[in-house]
Amino acid sequence: MSLLSWLLPRKKPLLSLEQQQRLLQLPSATALSNVPLRSQRWVVVDLETSGLNLNRDQVLSIGAVVIEDGAIDLSQAFERTLLRPDHPLSPSMLLHELGPAAIAAGSDPVDALLDFMDFVGDSPVLAFHAPFDQHMLTRALKDSLGYRLQHPFMDVAALAPMLCPQFNPRQAGLDHWINHFNLQVEDRHNASADALATAELALILFSRASVQGIDSPLALQQRLNQWQRRKQIHGF
User: Does some domain include residue 27?
Assistant: First the structure.
């Protein structure tokens, strides 16, 4: 990307009248509250992307499930491939099992992202390595819709070592926690399967949080913030 392209104002996305109306009707995000953890509706999301570059790579697909009333609600699930039929194949797409059939069935990014934000509603979002997913989703929404993402994200990758200090291998990934808790995961490198695995892990962590006297989304985030500050200060 040239310096000139950074200096020039970004063009606003061209949305149809129907898409503009849908955008205006999206519910506003709400802050984390003191409701019981069990009462909170959470959207657990996983993104498959073309790479790990926060400013260049693109969202390829979105998978999400809902935790509500203290359980995973399989009737509320979301899966979209954000590709056009003429999008060229790349090694990363093959890694994520996005072959020609998936590409041919891909949704227009604008409609897919509108569908996803309608699915999220005003709920907070959970993800494993949430800062990455939050950044990528924020950029995709801004570029495609001109939408500013304000929903709170909570990082399951940070919650796990905080709530389970007895098992804290350095830089443990999702696979480490799946194996530690003997979770049955049918597939990996698939957005929907990874979102479901993250949701199963989150429920275990919510149970640990309740035992430790952390009984609301706001209290959980506050405890996480304190734990992360201590880590920075003491360097562990």
Answer: no
Total tally of structural domains belonging to the chain: 1
Tokens of 137: 């989703």
Q: Which amino acid is at 111?
A: D
In a domain, 182, yes or no: yes
**pLDDT tier, 188 (very low <50, low <70, confident <90, very high otherwise):** low
Residues 45 and 196 sit within 8 Å (Cβ to Cβ): no
Other CB atoms within 10 A of residue 179 CB? 11
- What is the CA 14 to chain-centroid distance, rounded? 25
Which CATH number covers residue 89? 3.30.420.10
| CA-wise closest residue to 39 among 67, 69, 66, 76 | 69
Q: Nearest-5° angle of CA 192, CA 194, CA 199?
A: 95
> Number of C-alpha atoms within 13 angstroms, CB side, residue 180?
18
19-57 pLDDT, tens per residue? 999 999 999 999 999 999 999 999 999 999 988 899 988
Full-model pTM: 0.86
Decide: residue 9, CB within 10 A, 0-12 exposed, 13-18 middle, 19+ buried. Answer: exposed
